[in-house]
Design brief:
This protein is of the alpha+beta class. The chain contains nine helices and four strands. The two termini are about 25 Å apart. About 0% of the residues have low confidence.
């Protein structure tokens, strides 16, 4: 395959149709920019939801006055449920550990010095294998006499309504995100295809002549595909630069100055370097697919 010849033909076409090429580049730039803002936002929301899902644990509060034998019996019940596959893991949190964990989450731990003593009870932090079965686990553990019934949920705390809503939201975000990404990609392909169509239409006689003299479909197609790739990569690169400027001037200052409320909980998203590579590859792919798809009708003589 004479790649150099095809590349020179693509550059010649771009120079001969500057206005159309600029339109294609701008089209890809807008589409990739939208995709570039959507992907990290979607992943950030997904990370936030997953972070909350990881906190859908069951807190089994142990009464301060419970003897060690009752605490051991409660732990045996938890181990039994774990062997049945209902519990993924669990850990015992002493009163001191509970206070230290709470202190680590506060932006200003010094406020705890105002407390006369440690009000937090010891507890078992139970992580269910399936958050939807929190109720079944809680029912099985309520028979223990070691539970502190004065605590929320009569000693076993789990957010049933929140769990159900969060699981529904997580599923919705997953499917909606995939659908929206697919729509954006299809829209970008159609937009770049329609723009490249103008370039091909302007050279339709040339394509017809090449077809009639025996040029193969791929010999005709490659310069246009390379032209689409060039326009796609350039448009994507411009959008990446714009996104980088927005990141430096807007996103980073906001993140660095955001206190995040009382606690320091944070979600994560895709790294900018990885995002840039994905967007540039996507831009080139969109340009190639759009060009190749549009050219099919002009290869029929």
């Amino acid at each position: 395959m004479r790649l150099g010849f095809f590349f020179r033909e693509a550059i010649r076409s771009i120079k001969a149709n500057v206005a159309i090429s600029v339109a294609a580049i701008v089209t890809v730039m807008i589409a990739v920019f939208i995709l570039g803002t959507f992907i990290p936002s979607y992943l950030y929301v997904q990370s936030t939801v997953n972070q909350q899902k990881s906190r859908l644990d069951i807190q089994v509060y142990v009464a301060d006055a419970a003897p060690q034998s009752q605490v051991a019996a409660l732990q045996a019940q938890i181990v039994a449920l774990q062997s049945q596959g209902l519990i993924k893991s669990f850990s015992f949190i002493s009163k001191t550990d509970a206070l230290n964990q709470f202190k680590a989450r506060l932006n200003d731990p010094s406020i705890l010095t105002l407390l006369p003593n440690n009000p937090l009870p010891a507890s078992f932090d139970v992580r269910p294998a399936d958050p939807a079965k929190d109720g079944q686990i809680a029912t099985a553990l309520r028979t223990s006499h070691a539970i502190d019934t004065t605590m929320p949920g009569n000693g076993i705390s789990y957010a049933e309504t929140t769990t159900n809503r969060l699981l529904t939201i997580a599923q919705f975000i997953q499917y909606a995100g995939l659908v929206l990404i697919a729509i954006l990609l299809v829209a970008a392909i159609l937009l770049i295809g329609n723009t490249i169509r103008l370039s091909i239409f302007a050279r339709r006689r040339e394509v017809e002549v090449m077809r009639l003299v025996g040029a193969t479909n791929w010999f005709i197609r490659w310069p246009f595909i390379i032209e689409g790739i060039i326009c796609g990569v350039v448009g994507a690169a411009i959008s990446v630069v714009i996104l980088w400027i927005a990141k430096i001037l807007v996103v980073d200052p906001y993140v660095s100055t955001s206190t995040g409320g009382l606690t320091r909980d944070s979600a994560t998203t895709i790294g900018f370097g990885t995002l840039a590579v994905i967007l540039i590859v996507a831009g080139g792919a969109v340009g190639a697919v759009g060009s190749g798809f549009t050219l099919r009708r002009f290869l029929k003589v």
